[in-house]
Amino acid sequence: MTTTIPTPRPPSIDADDSDEYLIWYDDKAELAAEIEAAIVRLGLTREEVARQAAEGHFEDWRARRIWWMIEAFGV
Amino acid sequence: MTTLLNSTVADGATVRTMAAAGGYSIVGTDARRRRADGGPIRLRTSGATGLWIDLGALLFEDETGYLTVQKSTWSVLSGPGRDGTILHYDYERDKEGYPEAHLQVVGRLPGLEACLEAVGRKRSRMQHLHLPVGGRRFRPALEDVIEFLIDERLVEAKPNSKQTLERSRTAYQDIQLLAAIRRRPDKAIEGLLDLGYKIQESVTNRVG
Fold first, then answer.
1. Nearest CA in chain A to B98
2. Is residue A61 pLDDT above 90, yes or no?
């Protein structure tokens, strides 16, 4: 038996990644406004969310998602 | 994820991807435009007490073009307000200070708290401990968490859920196995040689 190890290739886009499941933000300002609104709904400030991230423990699951958005999109 | 949840332990769940220019994207339960922070989704239960799951993942494309998880969390919550976190399986790539793949369980254990206080961690509780779970390549899959909830009768599973979970988990584990092989082809070759294969290196792989 002979096996050739092929050169890795990027995977194709998963079938579930259709437009129906994708929210694309062209406008970073829109995204920034969403994040600010989410922070207000949670009753926190951006600084408090950052503090919890630095400590490695979010007191509320919503704060984690908000922090990820700040990190991922740089807004 | 949407299909997996709705064919096993949820009805009408949505998991969407949020993306913008820059290379990162976030996958999350119940994410919607103008409400991107989303939230947990309710699971099917036979009891009156609500049980919820919150899924999130921060993804990026690595240097070789593979979609890669930077962080992920699978949280199980209880109560009508969705705010009673029971446990969460987390993955944080390149994390220092505790294991990349870990489980955190909310609870009070006086004996544990006494141990923590004795080493100067007076305010630490069970949920602050990061219990290791398999490392980067072999961490639990979402399918494992769903199966745990079914096996413990915390959720009411739909027919054929076990088969659905097994198929989905196998696909995930195959991806993880291939990723492990890409990082350690020497070990893959060693294993194949042990099985009697002969390895012929392709010309394209001799560079780099």
1. A56
2. no
